[in-house]
Amino acid sequence: xxxxxxxLATPVAAPHPPRSPFLDWRAKFVLLALIWGMSFVLIxxxxxxLAPLQLALGRMGTGALALLAVLFLSRGRLPxxxxxxxxxxxxxxxxxxxxxxxxxxxxxxxxxALMGIVNASTPLFGVVxxxxxxxxxxxxxxxxxxxxxxxxxxxxxxxxxxxxxxxDVSGDDALIGMLLVVGATVCYGIGTPYLRRFVAGxxxxxxxxxxxxxxxxxxxLLVLTPLFxxxxxxxxxxxxxxxTALGVFGTGFAYILNYAVVRVAGATVATTxxxxxxxxxxxxxxxxxxxxxxxxxxxxxLVIILGAALCQGVLRVRRPAPEGAGRRST
Length: 330
Fold this sequence. Notes:
Helix 1 (25-46) packs antiparallel against helix 9, helix 2 (52-73) packs across helix 3 (82-106) and helix 4 packs across helix 7. The protein has twelve helices and no strands. It is 68% helix and 0% strand. It starts with 24 loop residues before the first helix and ends in a 19-residue tail after the last helix. By secondary structure, the protein is mainly alpha-helical.
């Protein structure tokens, strides 16, 4: 499946668990969309007082602690294979460390709603790199059409016809901010097929792999953050709570929710949360932060979602029936 924002693609097939009377998978799906959609608002709040590396470290550190706590309480354990640790370190860089840092930089330049919109292009890059990296992924007419439509949507969001002049930030800053988000989605697009190629078939559970991924992704930030940033002097409770919520829920608890939806409803259904996240992100940005958007940005988001749905097979183009196929032979 195409990796969702900050999520681990589930590499291990698991049997369907008994239906939970406490929380149906549909409720988990909605909760997951709300958590990931709200993440962009939390990133924006944290970026007000924290450097991008600090924001990424706070998010990764609290997310790792949350997952490791759940792993400990469930009596699981981290994988011990050095080879697997190496592959998971690369995956952590691609799916967490680098994109989370890029989002931190982007949050200083563009609104949270716009980050959520551009992030909707994640499935497009997932399909592109899956076809390049995985031997069992082949392009077909529908996928190529979806890619074309999706990237047309990206250009629509960028507003290439007016050089971004209508954005509520300076044009150069808006362009850089959106390119940073595109860079993050490219990382997601590479990381997902990397996991499928080198981690698929592992006997470990998704919780064990997710915990290891978050732990390994935190380590380089622990080294780089003190070297390139100084301690924040104006840290507020608002920013601290935002980063904590971003890590515990958006980066930790969301992994567990995503895996639960995959197990019960399947990977195809789980990936459709990607289409709901931009709606939540835009709504939260406008309502909670008072952000504004130009007409081309939500329109572009709809075009991106249409292209992504075609790429992932959620929508399919019907081929015309061969001439005379419906005629009865005589």
